[in-house]
Amino acid sequence: MNFQSLELEIHGQVATVWLNRPAVRNALDEVLISEITQAINHLERHDGVRVVVLAGRGKVFCAGADLNWMKRMAEYSAEQNQTDAMVLATMLKTLKQVSKPTIARVHGAAFAGGMGLAAACDVVVAEPAAAFCLSEVRIGLIPSTISPYVIQALGIQAAKRYMLTAERISAKEAYRLGFVQELCEDGSIDAAIARISQALIAGGPMALAQTKALMKTVVNRPLDDELISETAGLIAKVRASREGCEGMASFLQKRRPTWMDSAL
Q1: Cα three-residue angle 146-55-108, rounded to 5 degrees
Q2: Where are the beta strands (DSSP E) in 134-179?
Q3: In the CATH scheme, what is the code of domain 204-261?
Q4: For the CA atoms of the chain, what is the radius of gyration?
Q5: Which runs of consecutive H residues, i.e. helices, occur in 23-77?
C-alpha cells in the first residue's frame, strides 16, 4: 500500500505503522488519520501479521493535532465538524478493536490525540524522556473523541485531573499510574518492543483475538449468573476449537504448538 503520511513495515509477524510527518512532530490531520485507519484495516486482514506496533518517525511519537488542520476546522460548519470528528473517532475505534495485539512505541511527546493513540493500544512502551499531556482545555477544546480510551487506560480519577489541568505527565508518572506498561532505559525501546512482540507471538492467534474480545465482554460487568455462564461457555467453546486442542496437546506432549513453528 502507498501512503502519504505514514510508512508500513512488516518484518516477520510484526508490522510497524510509522507516523511519518517528522517536520510537524507527527501531528494528526485528516490525511494521516485516514491512512492510519486504512493501515490497521489492512493489517487486520493480513494473515501473516500477528502483532501491530504504532510508532513515530523523528523526535516525537505524536504532538497532537496539526495546526493547519485546526485552522481549517475553525472555518467548518457544524455538519462539517461532525463529519471531521467522526473520522478521528472511527480511527481510534478501529485501532482499539483490531483483533491483533497492538503496542504503542512512545518517545518524546504524546500529546492530546497522540495520547489518545497510545491509549487505544493494548500495551504502551515508553522511553524515560517521553511525556504525555491532555492539553485540549488550554485552547478551549475538550478531549472528547479520545476520552473513552484515555479514561479506561489512565483510570477515572487520574484522567479527571489531567484532562482538567492539562498538566504534563512524565513517563515515570505515567508508568506509576499504569498508563505505561513498560518504561525502558534510554536506547532500549526497540529491544523492549521485540521482547514483548515475541511474547505475544507465543500465544495462539485465535486465543489472542478472543482474549481481547473477552476483556471487552467482561469489563464493568456485574459478577452475576449471566456473566459466569457466559464466560464458562466461552472457555468450553475454545477448548473444543482446533487451536485449543492443539495448544493443550502441545503442552501435554511438551512440544511447540504449530503456530510457533510458523513464527520461525
Answers
A1: 80
A2: 168-170
A3: 1.10.12.10
A4: 19
A5: 30-45, 67-74
Domain ranges of the chain: 6-200, 204-261
Q: Kindly give, in sequence order, each residue whose CB lies less than 8 Å from that of residue 97, ignoring residues fewer than 6 positions away.
A: none
From the candidates 44, 75, 127, 136, give the one annotated as an active-site residue: 136
DSSP state at residue 247: H
Fold for the domain defined by 6-200: 2-enoyl-CoA Hydratase; Chain A, domain 1 (3.90.226)
Say whether 136 is catalytic: yes
Cell numbers representing residue 25 in the block: 512532530
Helix (H) or strand (E) holding 150: helix 147-154
Cell numbers for 206: 485465535
Q: What is the pLDDT along the chain (264 residues), one digit of tens a residue?
A: 889 999 999 999 999 999 999 999 999 999 999 999 999 999 999 999 999 999 999 999 999 988 888 778 778 888 888 988 899 999 999 999 999 999 999 999 999 999 999 999 999 999 999 999 999 999 999 999 999 999 999 999 999 999 999 999 999 999 999 999 999 999 999 999 999 999 999 999 999 999 999 998 898 899 999 999 999 999 999 989 999 899 988 988 989 999 987 654
